[in-house]
Amino acid sequence: MAVAMDDSNESVSVNMEKIYLGGKEHHVPTGRGSVSVIIYGDQDKPALITYPDLALNHMSCFQGLFFWPEAASMLLHNFCIYHICPPGHELGAAPICPDDPAPSVNDLADQILEVLNYFGLGAVMCMGVTAGAYILTLFAMKYRERVLGLILVSPLCKAPSWSEWFYNKVMSNLLYFYGMSGLLKEFLLQRYFSKEVRGTAEVPESDIVQACRRLLDERQSINVLRLLQAINRRPDITDGLKRLRCRTLVFVGENSPFHSEALHMISKLDKRYSALVEVQACGSVVTEEQPHAMLIPMEYFFMGYRLYKPCPFSDSPRSPLSPSCISPELLSPESMGLKLKPIKTRMSL
């Protein structure tokens, strides 16, 4: 690939855009219908699969992280990326026939296995956000030999609380009767982002929120409703967390409505294989709101698998975070070997 030899951010950023424009969409047949998978990078490299949150896809959930020049150079230099879309969430998706059986979360986890088998993939690295984090965790429990590690962003693991169940039922009714209405989009944006970027009467909403709002306009309400119903009927998988043997890196924004859920989850994971990074002044979708906060923890996480190789055209992630912002436990030799200690890191941005 053509990369300028100077060290300017501009030259790296342009190169990354060309790589992303070269991604190819595949429609993978599964027992529950076709699944859209967008592939970026060299398929001879280790695989990293992603799964987005409710009503999002790879463009609206992971673009901030994968378009961040340092993150793009790190991830694409070391992995081939497979963005898996929930059924009917891909760009330009048609409405799913209402007569088609609605999938359960177990069906969605089984679809991931079919995708891996379709592409001939073995064990993969996984990255998911909220609902996507739950589905990938469930997948890791059911098919432990197919998961190298989990990177979970504002994850879920318990059955919905009464308040979440009611909130989801309100959104379900809005979707059913009014489609992707303005009120429904406000509910979703509150789920994704902190108030700092959603804006106020005096302060306009940020570019990432405006972009997400436009992308939500493209979703088919019936397709979003089917995924929401599956997530609202999810079982509690807390008891299975201790049996996970892959290492798990959890990110959560301190202003995420699922902050307490992430803390519960990290308390139940095996402390030898799990770590927590809390990000201040951030909502649920850390990948979009503060992607730079993920760089250094991910770099050291990948080092533990000997999967990380610095890109020859880029320095080690030039994050605005200094190493002093990261818990020493994450940077210890033990954390880069067989054990990753539990931490609670707050990143001041």
Give an overview of the whole structure:
The protein starts with 8 loop residues before the first helix and ends with a strand. The protein has 349 residues and is an alpha/beta fold. It contains 15 helices and nine strands. The protein is 40% helix and 16% strand. A hairpin with a 2-residue loop joins β1 (24-30) and β2. The longest helix is centred in the middle third of the chain and has 17 residues, at 162-178. α1 crosses α4 (69-78) and α7 runs antiparallel to α11 (221-232). It has helices at 9-21, 58-61, 63-66, 69-78, 105-118, 131-142, 162-178, 182-192, 195-198, 207-216, 221-232, 259-268, 286-289, 295-303, 328-331, and strands at residues 24-30, 33-40, 47-51, 80-84, 124-129, 147-153, 247-253, 274-279, 344-347. It has a nine-stranded mixed beta sheet, sandwiched between helices.
